Amino acid sequence: MSERFFPDEMPMPAANAETLAFWEAAARHSLVVQRCAGCGQTRHPPGPVCPACRSTASQWLELPGTGSVYTFSVVRQAFLPALSDRLPYVVCAVELDQGGGVRMVSNLVGCEPERVAIDLAVTVVWEDMGPDLALPRFTPLGTTVARP
Amino acid sequence: MTTKGRQAVIAGVATSDYPLLPDLSEHAVHGQAADRALADAGLSMADVDGFASAGFFPMYALGVTEYLGLHPAYFDETNAGGASFEVLVEHAAYAVESGAAEVVLVTYGSVQLSQMGRTLGTGAPGGAGALAPGPAIYDALWGNTLVGNYALAAQRHMHEFGTTPEQLAAVAVTMRKHAASNPFAQKRELITVEDVVNSRLVADPLHKLDCCVISDGGAACVVTSAERAADLPNAAVYVLGGAHASTHQMNLSAMADLTVTGAAQCGPLAFRRAGITPADVDVAQLYDSFTITVLLTVEDLGFCAKGEGGAFVEDDGLGLAGRLPTNTDGGGLSACHPGMRGMFLIVESVRQLRGECGETQVPGAAIAVAHGTGGMLSASATLVLGRDAP
What pLDDT is recorded for position B253? Predict the structure, then answer.
């Protein structure tokens, strides 16, 4: 069994022009979101146009990586057969600190499913998948995660 | 929705056999539903000059028209997942009222259940080393599931409004009660709130019995003008108004508020176009992929205030004698859910307005609402149908 959080057969991101900068920052363990250079609204996932003001100009805003659980689910039945030996696992939407209300869906790790609650304070942990890819997951603040 | 004095009506409806069709192909399910709907309308394939359908593959409608031997002047395959068929019938009404088509056949077919048996374990979309480009990957990477996405919304609704698992369960209990009167329903044995909350958790807080069944099946309807329908055998049902909306595609990261669906936008618009208010609605057919889907929909359509859905649906609030008789065929939670069941909502609405629903007939039903929800709460579409001419 792979030492990784999810098995190696899981789909991997194929970066495109809009998402490459996110993944390049992730590889450096830096959590960024896109911020409109016109009106300042943040957005995630990255996209070519600001949904608020239509500006195509954007910047990357580096965030501290902390946040709070906006909602979550404990997945107890997997869709992908490869995930059946990882059950149960927690999928969460995290509202990111200093992110202007932006939310990111990811996993919560290093936490018993029974302890997960909305508003739980969390921080990002990175799993290195290779020299140019790291995946951001979250863990309760103050938790030490040996293997995210 | 009348323009140039033409009024769109539904002249015929039908379902195919369901819920298990191991001997039929997907196209054959379309064909069975289409033949029955045309017979119900007193029309034939030769009368059809418009066609609409949606499925899981591009150029889907072309495949079905080839199978049916149709060469329509008007076709449409707008895909909004489970909301597709409310959109397609709304469009068909516009086509009839503009004069672009005279008789539009709308068909749905799926052999999802039998297909699963045939391919079990041999592959899953997006799995096994696939590369997922673009924004879709932002939610797919984390092993989230279809149920898991709806669970995220349910969890948030419970947190914000104190909605309980028992209130969600009440939706499933009422649907099962209705299914008990439907001889074709996949699940007919009565269940209790306790049965639902004690069933296995699939993705917290949703239990197995908070989730729809997985079925084979299809359905169809025939949209034409009131004028054309005047000498047809069944009472025409009037398309009074329709509207649709989307909030995002597949990433819940991009949904502004997980407790508010596009129904809050398209519901009031459809009602305004139909000249009605929620209080005028006698019977509703609401997409019930999961119990939470129905709870959000009754709030967003304005049958109760945001946050009060739990109290609205509990104690058989969606039952025949309840606050809003809903899913009188047993819905996707119990009767039949082949993947995109929006067409079933329209068929059951028409049957209610024609007074054909037997034990689950809502007496004197004059206004029915069919509301579809597609994707990951992504798309919503409302159709208001009436027994009487507007």
Answer: 83
Q: At CB < 8 Å, which residues of chain B contact A?
A: 121, 124, 126-135, 137-148, 151-153, 155-156, 159, 200-206, 251-254, 258
Asked if pLDDT for residue B168 goes beyond 80, the answer is yes
If contacts are CB pairs under 8 Å, which of residues 68-127 in chain A contact chain B?
A: 70-83, 86, 89, 91, 93, 102-107, 113, 118
Query: Do the chains contact at B251 and A105, CB–CB below 8 Å?
Result: yes
- Which has the closest alpha carbon to B288: B96, B82, B57? B82
pLDDT digits (tens, 9 = 90+) for B246-265: 999 888 888 989 999 999 99
pTM listed for this prediction? 0.94
Cβ of B131 within 8 Å of Cβ of A14? The answer is: yes
| CATH class of the domain defined by B8-117+216-239 | alpha beta
* Closest to B111 (Cα-Cα) out of B337, B361, B380: B337
For B27, other C-beta atoms within 10 Å of its C-beta total 17
Enumerate the CATH 3.40.47.10 domain ranges in chain B, comma separated: 8-117+216-239, 144-212+241-386
Residue B290: list chain A partners with CB under 8 A.
Answer: none
Question: Model ipTM?
Answer: 0.93
A79 to chain B: nearest residue by CA?
B145
Res. B131 pLDDT band, cuts 50 70 90: very low
Tell me if the domain spanning B144-212+241-386 has CATH number 3.40.47.10. yes
